[in-house]
Amino acid sequence: MLRLSYIGFLVVMLILPVMAEASVCLRLSFDNLVDQADWVVVAHLETEGVSVWGPKHLRIFTTYRFKVTEQIAGTGPEVFTIVQPGGRMGHWQQIVKGYPSFQKSVPVMMFLRQKGASFQVVGLSQGLFSFRKDELGQEVLHQETQGLSLVVPNGYATSHDQNMVLTPAFAKKKIKELWRAKEAS
Fold it and tell me: Is there a contact between 172 and 24 (Cβ–Cβ < 8 Å)?
């Protein structure tokens, strides 16, 4: 009987990691992103992430260093770091779905919240927008939500084809407008 319970436990432990394909979180509107941010910038990853073990060697955390190319709202340093769970230490790798991934020297717009001496992207990866070309060749900002299962307030899940796509000019104008209202309240 004990052996059967042990085998059942092993089966569950082997299947469970496969089942965790996304983090679930509340879908944030553009207004929510601005409201929850301490700072909105266009920046690029300056150096590859550096991973370290957390307390008791149970979790891995990675620090990314960014250089600001444009401050859109709020104020902060010219160079800043983002620390988030996940990374690689030797032969161990920890992947945390829903957190943003970054490519060196690629500019992105980020809605950031200060956390101690570093920052975090608002709403896991919802606060990260990449610059892309649309089907007409126009530059747009595309919201990055890989690894997220987003739920709207009524409880229904949304799909990735409902990511925000905005022109940079409209996004910056809207952010500044919402930021002024936020500061006035």
Answer: no
Contact 126, 146 (CB under 8 A): no
61-78 pLDDT per residue, tens = 999 999 999 999 999 999
Taking the C-alpha atoms of residue 38 and residue 179, their distance in angstroms, rounded to an integer, is 10
Cα separation, 83 vs 76, whole angstroms: 16
For 69: left if phi > 0, alpha if psi spans -120 to 50, otherwise beta; the answer is: alpha
Mean pLDDT to the nearest integer, 83-87: 95
pLDDT digits 0-9 by tens, 155-169 = 666 655 578 899 999
Query: Which one-letter DSSP state was computed for residue 157?
Result: B
Contact of 96 with 24, CB cutoff 8 Å: no
Residue 80, amino acid: F
Phi-psi category of 152—alpha, beta or left, where left has phi over 0 and alpha has psi -120 to 50? beta
- For residue 37, give the 3-state DSSP assignment: coil
pTM of the model as a whole: 0.84
SS3 state of residue 21: coil
For tokens 């207004």, what's the residue?
31
Mean of the per-residue pLDDT values of the chain:
87
